[in-house]
């Protein structure tokens, strides 16, 4: 069993109990880590506070990762509360509805900017805030999707944002390696989360995975959580700059 006792993990992007961020937070806590969960706005505060009792010694903080002042503020709070950090989970992505549902050719400049800012640049901003507190090194994880390299219907600008996110992982890995901070991404298969509701015909993607993936089923959030605690632990001490697929093998298939 993976032991993360004595570690402090901060999970950005909690939406509700069905989110991948929540599954990862639970697994980190089960492994012994002290967990801080960060939610985006007051609207999501009630959901986060309601989930806290299910974790041992957890705290919740508000942080909109598209606002630098809020990132600075939350890391000041985290420093005051924990002193140092060991694990950061970035489970954040957003694109305006039009940038997902409209034909990709019609993507508006501002919608594209927002998608790249929230979904990719925010990882840089969060890593910059976390690095000074990761005094013993550690692990930074983000969540991506296969739509970064292959065209999926109704994914559009988000696919480009995920491609940028994966490149960001590689460059951050190079930037932070000397500080013994590893940076990796998990490419999870499609899961029915709040974010997935914005993707048209999402059930068709789920059905295609079940039909074609080597395991002939869709991945579960707990399996993403299992991969996360491995990558966060010393068992993965030699892994950085990588994208790890947790998708029941779908990415290896052709037809």
UniProtKB/TrEMBL annotation:
PANTHER family referenced in this protein's UniProt entry, alphabetically: ENOYL-[ACYL-CARRIER-PROTEIN] REDUCTASE, ENOYL-[ACYL-CARRIER-PROTEIN] REDUCTASE [NADH], CHLOROPLASTIC
GO MF term set: enoyl-[acyl-carrier-protein] reductase (NADH) activity
Domain of life (superkingdom): Bacteria
Catalysis: reaction(s): a 2,3-saturated acyl-[ACP] + NAD(+) = a (2E)-enoyl-[ACP] + NADH + H(+)
Residues involved in substrate binding: 95
Gene Ontology BP term (one): fatty acid biosynthetic process
Signal peptide: none
Protein's name according to its UniProt entry: Enoyl-[acyl-carrier-protein] reductase [NADH]
Pathway assignment: Lipid metabolism; fatty acid biosynthesis
Alphabetic keyword roster: Fatty acid biosynthesis, Fatty acid metabolism, Lipid biosynthesis, Lipid metabolism, NAD, Oxidoreductase
Active site: 145, 155
List of residues binding NAD(+): 13, 19-20, 40, 64-65, 92, 162, 191-195
CDD domains xref list: ENR_SDR (cd05372)
Family: Belongs to the short-chain dehydrogenases/reductases (SDR) family. FabI subfamily.
The keyword Oxidoreductase is assigned to this record: yes
Enzyme class of the recorded protein, top EC level: oxidoreductase
Species for this entry: Terriglobus saanensis (strain ATCC BAA-1853 / DSM 23119 / SP1PR4)
The EC number(s) this enzyme carries: 1.3.1.9
